[in-house]
Amino acid sequence: MKEPPRLDIIGSQVTAAPFDVLMEVILAWAKRRQSKCICVANTHMLVEAYQRPSFKKVMQKADMVTPDGMPLVWMLKLMGAKKQNRVAGLDLMRALCQRAAEQNISVYFLGSMAPILQRMRKRLLTEFPNLLIADMEPLPFRPLTSAEDRHLIQRINNSGAGVVMIALGCPKQESWMANHKEKINAVMIGLGGAFPVYAGIHRRAPSWVRAMGLEWFYRLIQEPRRLWKRYVSSIPLFVYLALKQICYRCWSALF
């Protein structure tokens, strides 16, 4: 299957294709248990890549970078991807679980905390009773030892999982996926905050808030102490860089 094109947004390559097209590509990889990395990108992630060359290299290793957040969708549409829609982590997770259940693809859930994973399992088996859950495993907050990491890789590969959904937070989960590419025989997807939302710990913004590109503000209201520094440092810079890119594109088109 031909892989979708990518377009540059403030120096990062974001995959430009509708949600359903990306789903088909991911499922094709998962059936073959190919070692792939998928980054679910928002403005914060792109600013991290812009500011940190080491993290930019991590994102460049990704096989797919989906546009999670309306600002990225708007940018892709401005650059010609007229049919682009949002590919958010929670939507991707639920759609993949549904399709994986239909196609007998096993899914491994990695990261977060045991109570969240337990609540997720209960809801997953209610919504998708035929879903094959290979395992659900939290990870310690400290780095794994070499032996622990080898055993984790072995457990995942022996489980037969075609998809590994990872919740370690950005940029930790993206770096983890890059370091485990060609070691883990599955499609790895960094889902960040999707786990606690699906488990019912956090509430998701209403659809009209998401459509306006204000989900970040909704999340800020829920977790102000954790998120305010991130948003203050990333959102204004993203807006500046995006406007700069748009102006340069318009200027180049004129001359």
Describe the structure.
- The chain is globular.
- The strands form 2 sheets. Strands 4-3-8-7-5-6 form a 6-stranded parallel beta sheet, with helices on both faces.
- It has 255 residues and is an alpha/beta fold.
- The longest helix is centred in the C-terminal third of the chain and has 31 residues, at 224-254.
- It is 55% helix and 15% strand.
- The model has no long low-confidence stretch (mean pLDDT 92).
- It starts with 5 loop residues before the first strand and ends with a helix.
Which residues form runs of ≥5 with pLDDT under 50?
none
Compute the separation of the termini in Å: 37 Å
Assembly type of the shown chains? single chain
Spell out the helices and strands N to C.
Answer: EEHEHHEHHEHEHEHEHHHH
Task: Give descriptors for this structure.
single chain, 255 residues, alpha/beta, six-stranded parallel sheet, two-stranded antiparallel ribbon, 8 strands, 15% strand, globular
